[in-house]
Amino acid sequence: MKAMSRLVCLLLGLQLAFTSVATEEKYPFENAQQRSLFMELSKELRCPKCQNQNLADSDAMIAADLKRKVHELVLAGNDKDQVISYMKQRYGDFVYYQPPVNSMTIWLWLLPALFIVLALAALVMSRKKVSVSLDAQQQQKINELLERDK
């Protein structure tokens, strides 16, 4: 029984050792500035396959390819705008979380504001007082009731 428990402990120790090796950095950098630029870009660029995941969070194969390309571009000395421009040229504006304002995306910016204006207009219109026309007999009865309450 002791031999079995020692074997289990040995296997668990080996597993922990291999796990610590697996946490080594995949993308080595020359300095901390490049590392922070890479991390920032991998959070700002979207995976083309995963609808709403950035490159840092995605496990898709294309996200890994894009991360490798971002790594290469950062090591080559490209700045943030150059890397984003490169990615947008190849994958379109979708790859960047902040779409530009142009003729195709203007509705993304205007529709929420238009919806708010229309909702406020509908609220104001529904709150308007309804005017009721009364004949002379009904008006006299209301006046009598008001006089009596005084």
TrEMBL record:
Q: List the Gene3D superfamilies.
A: Cytochrome C biogenesis protein (1.10.8.640)
Task: Quote the Pfam families the UniProt record gives.
Answer: CcmH
Keywords (alphabetical) are:
Cytochrome c-type biogenesis, Heme, Iron, Membrane, Metal-binding, Signal, Transmembrane, Transmembrane helix
InterPro entries documented for this protein: C-type_cytochrome_biogenesis, CcmH/CycL/Ccl2/NrfF_N, CcmH/CycL/NrfF/Ccl2_sf
GO molecular function of the protein, one example?
Answer: metal ion binding
Q: Which residues cross the membrane?
A: 106-125
GO CC annotation: what is one? Answer: plasma membrane
**CcmH/CycL/Ccl2/NrfF N-terminal domain location, by residue?**
11-146
As given in the record, the signal peptide range reads: 1-22
GO BP of this protein:
cytochrome complex assembly
Role played? Possible subunit of a heme lyase.
- Alphabetized PANTHER family for the sequence: CYTOCHROME C-TYPE BIOGENESIS PROTEIN CCMH
Protein name as catalogued: Cytochrome c-type biogenesis protein
